[in-house]
Specification:
The complex is a heterotrimer of chains A (254), B (308) and C (335). Helices cover 39% and strands 26% of the residues of chain A. With 254 residues, chain A is of the alpha/beta class. In chain A, the strands form 2 sheets. Chain A has a 6-stranded mixed β-sheet, with helices on both faces. A 4-stranded antiparallel β-sheet of chain A has the order 2-1-4-5. The longest helix of chain A is centred in the last third of the chain and has 18 residues. The N and C termini of chain A lie far apart (40 Å). Chain B starts with 20 loop residues before the first helix and ends in a 7-residue tail after the last helix. Chain C is α/β, with parallel strands linked by helices. Chain C is built from 11 helices and 12 strands. Chain C has an 8-stranded mixed β-sheet, with helices on both faces. A 4-stranded antiparallel β-sheet of chain C has the order 2-1-4-5. Chain C is globular. Classes of the chains: A alpha/beta (254), B mainly alpha (308), C alpha/beta (335). Chains in contact: A-B, A-C, B-C. Chains A and B meet through α2, α4, α6 and α7 of A and α1, α9 and α10 of B.
Chain lengths: 254, 308, 335
Amino acid sequence: MLVRAESVSKVFSSRAGETLAVDDVTLEVRRGETVGVVGESGSGKSTLARLIMGLQPVSSGRVIFAGQELTALSGRDLRTLRSKMQMVFQNPYGSLLPHYTAVGNVMEPLRLHGRGTRETRRAKAMELLQLVGVNPRFADLSPRQFSGGQQQRIAIARALALEPDLLVCDEPTSSLDVSIQAQILALLEDLRGQLGLACVFISHNLAVVERLADRVAVMKSGKIVEEGPTERLFGDPQDEYTRTLLAAVLPVRS
Amino acid sequence: MAATQSSADVGVTAAPVSGTPAAEIKTKGPGRHAWDRFARNKLALGSLVFCVLLVLVALLAPVIAPFHYAETDFANKLVGPGVEGHLLGTDTLGRDNFSRMLFGLRTALTVAFGAEVTALLLALIIGLLAGYVGGRLESALMAGTDVMYAFPSYLFAVILVTVMGRSIFALILAIGVASWVTQARLVRAQVLSIKEREYVEAARSMGAPGVTIAVRYILPNAIGPILVTTSFGIPAAIGAEAGLALLGLGVDPSIPSWGTMISEGTRYLLSAPHMLLFPATMFALTLLAFTWVGDGLRDAFDASGDLR
Amino acid sequence: MSLLEVDDLRTEFRRADGTRMTVVDGVSFAVEPGRALAIVGESGSGKSVTVRTLLGLLPKTARVAGGSATFQGKDLLALKQRELRRIRGRDIGMVFQNAMEAMNPTLTVERQLTEHLLWHGICGKAEARERAIEALAGVGIPEPERRIRMYPFQMSGGMRQRAMIAMAMVTKPALLIADEPTTAVDVTIQRQLLDLLAGLKEQGTGIIMITHDLGVARYFCEDVMVMYAGRVMERASTHALLDAPRHPYSVGLLGSSIEVGGRDRPLIPIPGSPPDLARRPDGCPFHPRCAQAELPRCAEPQELLTIEGSPAAAGDAIEAGRVHGAACWKAASLV
């Protein structure tokens, strides 16, 4: 078992009152497996991702990663642990440092964790860019000079730089065109296989999750309403809401 | 020659390295892009050239000036332009106006740049701290800023100069401290908005400590609008220096200042109009030039404009 | 008689450095009353610019470089802004992707609905209010008399989208143009909105739906037109195109589509990216990415061929939805 969220809840308080974004959720991810989390807007899936990553503190419950409880760690220890779990975000351009070059972005996590020298970091970053399909010729360009698909590739390269055990993807292809989406998903599938990564894949797109995930959790209003192996969940959904979601999908082919 | 990707490259493996860069890479980096936009504005470009010339002239004033600015020539008091090698005439003490103008420019630019840099540094430090740390520190800093904001800036400058004496350093401090306030608020606002961007969250997820995030990632991106206000601040500072000089609180009277030259010149408007005409014209041109550069900078940094 | 007939539409943009960019390059299609046409394409395909050209909603840097658009006997492209404004909102309704952006946040829903009616001089104030309430009820908003006094931000996303549709329909336009109306809403609401729009089709409204989602196209639209880099790649009835696409780009789009139940089907992404519109490839804009491409033929200008093999003449534009056309000389031979 790689990471386990145990009865986690998250409450956001604002002037408008309190919102229970995640409500007593338990979720486990084992090494090498991909868990898909689906839900509509407001389901709490993005918040859950951030709780697992430790980017947001839990209001109650605990998150255990590789045997260590996140809430018990000091700031520095948590930052060191971060190297084992990385995230790919929804907005490709927004998640890259705009004032760094493409290769600079990929090098940055290595620099933050003091890995190697500038030369070795750059060499590794170039390798990663090549791995994700970005022409190394363009390594020194700024992110905004790339297309959305390329930007997401750079973001993926950056996420892989520290050789994490877990990759959390929060709607990584939702803002991309259909044909580019297919490229990025193919890339993720491939990398996952090559590197043996565990993955938490958040999406509102059922078809994408069905393709990539070994297990799926369906979220609604902060709770997991159903969870199980992908084929079982899609083939024989038990929960009413899951069935509603599946029924709402519009097929492309007859 | 086939211009296509072979179908072997397609399939369930990672997409190949692209062979058609033009399709995926938009040309020009952001710095180059901003410069191109700036350069397209002929007025801004021309003004920039003029400002650079002014700076050069100010630096080379001791070399260029035909006379020393304090050198008196009682035989040639208040003569008109062109007389006896005095390009722009002389003043009541026979001092060469041209030389005094050059050194006045020097004073003006020294004070203006000095004040603006001071203001910029103060604004960055306070704005960054307030925006990034937030909480009670932010409230305290913003309260302090509000107090400064409410305090009439001229009065503050007057007090400071009275206390510290009429040195260039005092003037720089006076004008700088009086003008950082708006910029600090701007910095804070920028920092607040950038804090919410995804790359800050991404930085945290990479394990970056707070200081690194604030200084290396947020600050460089917050600077844009501040540069514009700084460049507008320069003419404002020149004006402030001249204004203080008019009040008798400028630099030591032995050092030439456009403010004092203008105030003297008004007294001789009818008898020796060149006394007012030259300094006033230069003053106006300088202010305009810097303001137009600021306009150009602001337009160059504007996000919209180009299609897609 | 078609509701709208667009023939060889061309739109150009002038960039900041003075160069011209063709964003819509010879697009022809027709919309029939009571039928929906899907315009499918990715970023840069020109689908949004096409409809904005028809409505006269282009920015100052753009201009119409050619073609005609006949609507109710008038050429929309030849009309002055004043006349277009009369048609816009009254005879042609528009629904956008994001209601929060399309609606005025400082006006109540009532104001926005009635303003439409009053401005076009369709009826007086009292009747306008009645019609507005009716329109809200028609889009399935419960308690319309109460909701009508709300501001957009007070409504949920789905309800706002419905209100926007109500706004477009309150003047009972003959043609409705919807630009990605369901992209920003949850999938459960999406079907409800589409069913709502289907009701309008039954009343005889013709609909143009811009979408990147082939599932939406299949569910809702009878006819579909695939655009790429400003050109029409393929045009057919939806079932014909989705079940048996002919143009390699359409084939590629379908190959890239991921579906529930398609877990075991291989994912075949289209390599590369859409072209920079300022530097479009010669001839077929898709050929650099096309596995079937053959030079030099593919770099020559392509025409929309009917699958039977003869070029589609201008007169066939009327039948556009029924004839399966593909802009690829190899299309007929590809299976």
